[in-house]
Amino acid sequence: MSRNIIPYNPKLKEKARELRNNSTLSEVILWRELKGRQMKGFDFHRQKPLGEFIVDFFSNELMLAIEIDGDSHYSNENRDLIRQKKLEQFGVAFLRFDDLAVKFKIDKVLKSIEEWIEKNGCK
User: Is residue 62 part of a domain?
Assistant: First the structure.
């Protein structure tokens, strides 16, 4: 299977590392379920630079970005939509989950991700 390579701004590497080292509780909760190919055998990365942006979680195999929308997103919906549209031009699909859903309804979040993979995945 060929991999799609999405170029990114190298200046984002340090910011991504900083975000990984200062994860939100929701990011920690979801990462526990995604890391180590636990999600149907697919590899995910967290705080992944893509283009001029950093997404919360990304699977190159699936071309899937998963975003957790918390307080910082509520006043920036338009900016997030523009960012998402730009990355969709590279073939990236998005799943977005509310911060509270990840914290209190993780089973529903995981089921949504599994259903997306079953419908769109290539394994």
Answer: yes
Question: What percentage of the chain's residues is helix, strand, coil (to nearest 5)?
Answer: 50, 25, 30
> What per-residue confidence (pLDDT) applies to 73?
52
Compute the average pLDDT of residues 59-66: 95
Percent of the chain with pLDDT over 70: 90
Look at residue 74 in the predicted model and tell me its pLDDT.
Answer: 56
Burial of 71 (0-12, 13-18, 19+ CB in 10 A): exposed
Phi, then psi, of 70 in degrees rounded to 5? -115, -155
CATH number, domain of 115, equals 3.40.960.10
The domain tally of the chain equals 1
Tell me what the mean pLDDT of segment 24-31 comes to: 96
Domain that holds residue 77: 12-120
Determine the Cα–Cα distance for residues 22 and 46; give it in Å rounded to an integer.
Answer: 12
